[in-house]
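Researcher: Here's the sequence for the chain we discussed earlier.
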Amino acid sequence: MFEQLIEAIKKYDRIIIHRHSNPDGDALGSQIGLKNIIKENFPGKEVYAVGDSSVRFGFMEDSKTDDIPDEYYNGALAIVLDTSATALISDARYATAELTACVDHHIFCEKFTDIEIRNTTYESCCGLIAEFAIECSLKLNSLAAKSLYTGMVTDSGRFRYDSTNSNTFRLASFLMEQKFDTNDIYANLYADDFSYIRLRAQFVLKINFTEKNVAYIYTTKDELASYNVDTFSISRGMVSTMSDIRGVDVWVNFTETDAGVLCEIRSSKYNINPIAVKYGGGGHAKASGATLKNRDEAMSMLADLNAITEV
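Model: Thanks. This is the structure I predict for it:
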């Protein structure tokens, strides 16, 4: 599966790793993991990780991205991780590299690199990078293993989502052969300040329902500013407040920003990905997202989500 990628990595002396914007644990984990795998096995190469930063996952070691000039892309290999659409890629300069590659586990949206490695049977992009290390007999240091494990944990919902399978645990076991502290990972992921717990409580009170029991939260730009937290903590962080409501099979979190209305869609039963794609987004069958133009478009998406559910 990774023959072309490993040959490209061997060939190029400068490698620049991209992933999607507003990174989650899987995007950062796969980026940090791949960067350190390449550095560990090919110490003479220049390896850079670029993209926007994350407050939520800033605890991850080596998560600070590199600020590089445009000319670094001349004669370079650019690898895009955990991304199914060009609109989602953080830093569009990847396209100016001499050779481009993509490693992703989302449902296919479009081809945008020379080398494409896509496999939706993996619960995370981190799982794919772990498989890459195994298949290509690459050495793995503790930082790479910890980063990849963190991404697997977050994208599998602590191994709860139905994307989790025997392959997930095989790869997790492989990563845990390296020494790293899982308590440190879980403490940073799931131990919240009391202020954040209070914020989640506020969002529980904001939950609304359609006539077919689609749960949704809509946060205006003014409300977002008043919370005084990063956008990720509201958009991605608060969608889970609706995940365990009995009788709710589809839920969506809308967050107004200067860039548009961010929407995070989840389902325990239905394939909501086609609706995300309809509005310019993408993702998985039961976990997708998109950026919408305005509230009217958000309400149109909500109507579409309402229409796919059973009465």
